[in-house]
Amino acid sequence: MTLNSTDVSVVMAVRDGERYLAEALESVLGQTARPGEVVVVDDGSTDSTLTVLASFGNAIRVVSQPPMGQAAAMNRGIEESTGELLAFLDSDDVWMLDALTCRLQRLHESDRPDGVFGSVAQFVSPGIPEHERRFFRFDPEPRPVPLPGTLLVHRAAFASVGKYDEGLRTGANLDWVSRARIAGMQLVSVPDVVLRRRLHDLNLGITMRGGARQDLLAVVRAHRARQATEPDDSGSEPS
User: Is 16 left (phi over 0), alpha (psi -120 to 50) or beta?
Assistant: First the structure.
């Protein structure tokens, strides 16, 4: 079966994202291959996020819930969406114009992968004062990174791995990718830059720095435990 962009559901979770939300949504709705639906889960925002969302009218579908965390909001968005393909974008990041097109093309190549990642280019948000910009240390060169914003995946394949772990405040994506790889999911990459990842003072990695370290350690430990119990090449369990 040939799937096209109208079979894509884009899922976005947001909490208090008024600053960059409109730009993120415009990058989705302005795709050369426009998705079939955009589902935005508002995770208990207290700023003007809902006003921004309302300005997009019927172009998006908004689901509201009490503040439950990013992983829970993403899971809710997946549940509410209907497309046979899933794509994701953080509310402060931006897709490149052909982000969907290049991944759809790769998804339909002869090896028929389960999911396709693209590359990421990071940038410091223009609104950050010059004297603070030096604190953001990053590689400006595009890199293939398995982030939600770079992934296009078959819904059935995503479901076979399971939901994002709602017990993780950060790092739920790393945990999901670990489970997907251990499960043998065929995830491939394209060299195209599909995502511009915005660095700013409200990134979760900054605002939840201590918690992020703890979650990362938990994800790494869980990944190693999965590797230890993975069958060897002969199909037998390791001793």
Answer: left
